[in-house]
TrEMBL record, chain A:
Descriptive protein name: ATP-binding cassette domain-containing protein
Topological category with respect to the lipid bilayer: Peripheral membrane protein
GO molecular function: ATP binding
SUPFAM superfamilies, alphabetized: P-loop containing nucleoside triphosphate hydrolases
Main subcellular localisation: membrane
Keywords from the UniProt entry: ATP-binding, Nucleotide-binding, Transport
Signal peptide: none
CDD domains: ABC_NikE_OppD_transporters
Automatic annotation (TrEMBL), chain B:
Predominant place of localization: membrane
Keywords: ATP-binding, Cell membrane, Membrane, Nucleotide-binding, Transport
Location in the cell: Cell inner membrane
Organism, as annotated: Albidovulum sediminis
Family to which the UniProt record says this protein belongs: Belongs to the ABC transporter superfamily.
ABC transporter domain ranges (all copies): 6-254
Mode of membrane association: Peripheral membrane protein
Name listed for the protein in its UniProt record: ABC transporter ATP-binding protein
Top-level division of the source organism's lineage: Bacteria
């Protein structure tokens, strides 16, 4: 058993949303997350899988210290964090950062890329201006962009480049935990491959821990160490990637696997043969 | 003779910085009862070529082709009246965003009955009966209730079923589906693809499926056209395409699939263009 403190740990996380009532119906509360437990060791990737409405983004926002859960306990590197009592300060913000799904919406169109990258340092650190600039340029290079991109605006970049900028921004404070909410689902297949490769390289280089939210099982299979399948706010299945993919236990997990299209040649051959037979029978 | 026959289709858009060629010399043939997938990434022109067939491009587009015929009709030189006889009856189309495709101000029943009355000349009562039949065909639960629902009261998957019901109402011989499942969850995607394939087989209609998703191609297509930057890279039957892709771009796309990762790294399209010296 490992004695190391997990980078992030959640115990019985609950999130309720209040739905305001109307003239004829009273207010009611919707339980978006119902007792979620998880822990992620340093340098590992936990993938949270689910369909729309499952609560996976709600959980991501709680882990990223954006929203406070209604109940349960969240620990970051062993420290209990409760943002209802105290807003997270620079120290905590430097440890946890987030990358959002849509790189068109998550960058301010009126802010130059250099300023996007330097802003976390301005807010959370007392690094001198010249050093801020050096660090931002170094990070631009690290994520595969050029120093001359420093003074450009987000609209001058493609979707994949923008997601690189969003990742660079998240890394400016040297976080230990990165929460990635569907970071590649808005990207084309070939760009998705580049960004996934970049994330894998950065994880090795900076010993990053990832919480990776996705609905795409083929991406999860590629990137995850641990997998949590979540449905209607309940974690129906949790385990190592190998265990979950080789032998899914819960019916919901199995139905997800069954619905995922396969690009396997043998499966295509079976489908074509069945189709040809059906056509011949119809004649 | 092919049902839809397009030779050397080029679509140019007039932009502030000059003419932009979105589709560059594309050939497409679809036979009766065939399922053709057109696959490509954003900007490959895969939607634009089919919008050209439907006559749905804006005036800024210039369409030229050596041939664009549907069942012997020259689609380039149709009068508006002739076009209305074909589009929406013989050839129908469904789109990516099912909720945005429906008018939020009217019930789904009103919208499908409008199609039935205009295209099939049915009376109100007959249109309502036919709409209920269609709702049952596409698997909408409680059709009598749902027919009075507004689009926002239905899920994305149900709205896409309404769109499909509308598209098959006139028994079209060609259905063009532009990314029909991209906005949907994977379990709903499976249901919608299964439905499309079942309707395609039952009605014997030809289906053109525009998609960026190789998984969707693998699960549905008979033949595949791979497009990149407005040009056709490769055309093959689905098995050959996945078994022995001929063009470097197709190989690049397939190896960029996470399930085809070798070791720790995914191949990217630029890796391939560098290694094969193609640009």
């Amino acid at each position: 058993m490992t004695q190391a403190v997990p980078v992030v740990e959640g115990r019985a996380i609950v999130q309720d949303y209040q739905v305001p009532g109307s003239l004829f119906t009273g207010a009611k509360s919707v339980r978006a997350l119902n007792g979620i437990d998880f822990r992620v060791e340093k340098g590992k990737t936990l993938a949270i899988v689910g369909e729309s409405g499952s609560g996976k983004s709600t959980l991501a926002r709680i882990i990223a210290l954006i929203d406070a859960p209604t109940g349960g306990e969240l620990r970051i590197e062993g420290d209990v964090v409760d943002i209802r009592k105290r807003r997270p300060g620079p120290d905590l913000r430097s440890r946890v950062q987030m990358v959002f799904q849509n790189p068109y919406g998550s960058l301010n169109p009126r802010q130059k890329v250099g300023d996007v990258l330097m802003e976390p340092l301005v807010i959370n650190t007392s690094v001198a201006a010249a050093e801020r600039r050096d660090r931002a340029e170094a990070m631009l290079k690290r994520v595969g962009l050029q120093p001359e991109h420093f003074n450009r605006y987000p609209h001058m970049f493609s979707g994949g480049q923008r997601q690189r900028i969003a990742i660079a921004r998240a890394l400016m404070l040297n976080p230990s935990l990165l929460v990635l909410d569907e970071p590649v689902s808005a990207l084309d297949l070939s760009v998705q491959a580049q960004v996934l490769n970049l994330l894998a390289d950065l994880q090795d280089e900076f010993h990053l821990t990832y919480v990776f939210v996705s609905h795409d099982l083929s991406v999860v299979r590629y990137i995850a160490d641990e997998v949590m399948v979540i449905s209607k706010g309940v974690a129906v299945e949790q385990g190592s990637r190998e265990a979950v993919f080789a032998n899914p236990q819960h019916p919901y997990t199995r139905s997800l696997f069954a619905a995922t299209p396969v690009t396997d040649v043998a499966a295509i051959r079976v489908r074509i043969e069945r189709r040809t037979a059906a056509r011949a029978a119809a004649r | 003779m092919a049902l839809l026959n397009i030779r050397n289709l080029t679509v140019r858009f007039a932009t502030a910085t000059g003419s932009f060629t979105a589709v560059d010399g594309i050939d497409v043939q679809v036979d009766r009862g065939d399922v053709l997938a057109i696959v490509g990434e954003s900007g490959s022109g895969k939607s634009v070529s089919m919008l050209a067939v439907m006559g749905l491009l804006p005036d800024s587009a210039t369409i030229t082709a050596d041939e664009m015929t549907y069942d012997g009709h020259d689609m380039l030189n149709l009068s508006k009246a002739q076009r209305r006889q074909l589009i929406g009856r013989e050839i129908t189309m469904i789109f990516q965003e099912p909720i945005a495709s429906l008018n939020p101000s009217f019930t789904v029943g009103f919208q499908i009955e409008e199609v039935l009355r205009l295209n099939l000349g049915l009376s109100r009562r007959a249109a309502r009966d036919k709409a209920l039949d269609l709702f049952r065909d596409v698997g909408i639960p409680e059709p009598e209730v749902k027919i009075n629902a507004y689009p926002h009261q239905m899920s994305g998957g149900q709205c896409q079923r309404v769109m499909i019901a509308m598209a098959i109402a006139s028994n079209p011989r060609l259905l063009i589906a532009d990314e029909p499942t991209t906005a949907l969850d994977v379990t709903i995607q499976k249901q919608i693809l299964d439905l499309l394939m079942k309707l395609q087989e039952d009605h014997g209609m030809a289906l053109i499926l525009i998609t960026h998703d190789m998984g969707v191609v693998a699960e549905t297509a008979d033949r595949v056209v791979v497009q990149y930057k407005g040009k056709k890279m490769e055309e093959a039957d689905v098995l050959s395409l996945f078994e022995a892709p001929q063009h470097p771009y197709t190989r690049a796309l397939l190896s960029a699939l996470p399930e085809n990762a070798t070791g720790d790294r995914l191949s990217t399209v630029s890796d391939f263009f560098e290694s094969e010296g193609v640009r």
